[in-house]
Amino acid sequence: xxxxxxxxxxxxxxxxxxxxxxxxxxxxxxxxxxxxxxxxxxxxxxxxxxxxxxxxxxxxxxxxxxxxxxxxxxxxxxxxxxxxxxxxxxxxxxxxxxxxxxxxxxxxxxxxxxxxxxxxxxxxxxxxxxxxxxxxxxxxxxxxxxxxxxxxxxxxxxxxxxxxxxxxxxxxxxxxxxxxxxxxxxxxxxxxxxxxxxxxxxxxxxxxxxxxxxxxxx
Length: 218
Prior knowledge:
Blueprint: E1 2-7, H1 13-24, E2 28-30, H2 31-41, H3 44-54, H4 61-72, E3 81-84, H5 90-98, E4 105-110, H6 113-121, E5 123-125, E6 132-134, H7 161-175, H8 177-183, E7 189-194, H9 199-217
Parallel strand pairs: 1-3, 1-4, 2-3, 4-7
Antiparallel strand pairs: 5-6
Helix pairs in contact: 1-9, 2-3, 6-7
């Protein structure tokens, strides 16, 4: 079972990937993690990636595809994998196809923009410890202060409302068209779930639809 997880930033792809990985015994393939590992290991690809990121440019699709091909050749991917964070553009999806990287299912976690903004823009962090709070879901005992130290909380730039809105704009322009593209591909089954509610509810919806799709396809 080779699965892509699609959805806006903050839709819960990472959380659901971990739950599905535990259930299906499939490794999670994150291009971001692989790029950071290459940089840390100072490989040839890592050196290119580091220079690219330092200059503020995007890592090429070719490098990402190389890393994915290298990763899925490992023995733990023989039964499949969960691809999280890739593809994000049509060119990346087409590159996967050109590289003969077969995808069986695309799980699209659909979350309304206002819910994404509420989730992300409400997050605050204690920089020294990394403790995360949310003004609605997990508020600090005293507004703006860490529960244990009383030190001030900060909001990361990525979580500022304006930044979240910009990220959503990029998502709608670059990534959202993949949903219709995969829906038209006969070799891929697109599964759409509403990503609102408890983590377990969303997870159960994904597993239920995957099970039904596998039965129909068998």
